[in-house]
Design a protein that fits this description.
Length: 184
């Protein structure tokens, strides 16, 4: 049973059922690891075989100090990523694309009130970035709890190839322009 505040957060989509289940699991682990009492978990997200934890400041060091717990988490989820929140978009982006840097971050406000960010990267940095555009999108979107698209600068200039996947940014822009024309 959730308190009214947590139930409201769940209803608004600020937290998920996984957040709740993981928090319960962490409370059980607090018996074995008393230092976890000082940990404040803001959000827990699972993306494929990755566990992404967003904790209040100093929580990352607290978790990393608990070696047996970290080993258990890595056994269950393979890769554990810990961020101190509240997460700032540019800081999170830079952590994932280092040593490259982003060219720009633009925000697109959709008619339904949601926000989508588009991160432009330099084409020459493609090999320097450890993650694919798809991985970046899913991980950073999960951390930020909003849609974040990644695109390499020169990708917009290349001609459409038949076997190539459609450009997500172009699709979104087309959808928005169709919505606007239907309203008129």
């Amino acid at each position: 049973m959730l308190c009214t505040s947590c139930q409201a957060k769940l209803d608004r989509g600020e937290i998920t059922t996984f957040d709740i289940e993981f928090s319960k699991w962490m409370l059980e682990k607090e018996k074995e690891h008393p230092n976890l009492e000082d940990l404040t978990l803001l959000r827990a997200t699972r993306i494929e075989s990755r566990l992404i934890l967003i904790v209040k400041p100093k929580g990352k060091d607290l978790l990393l100090a608990e070696e047996t717990l970290m080993n258990e988490l890595e056994e269950r989820f393979r890769e554990v990523m810990i961020f101190e929140g509240p997460a700032k978009l540019r800081r999170v982006i830079r952590e994932f694309i280092a040593p490259a840097i982003e060219v720009g971050v633009n925000s697109l406000y959709l008619p339904d009130g949601s926000k989508e960010s588009i991160v432009m990267l330099r084409k020459e940095d493609r090999e320097r970035i450890k993650y694919s555009v798809g991985e970046l999108r899913s991980i950073v979107s999960a951390i930020m709890n909003e849609s974040v698209l990644f695109e390499f600068q020169k990708d917009r200039l290349k001609p459409d190839l038949e076997d190539e996947a459609p450009d997500e940014f172009e699709q979104r822009m087309e959808e928005m322009s169709q919505r606007r024309s239907r309203r008129r």
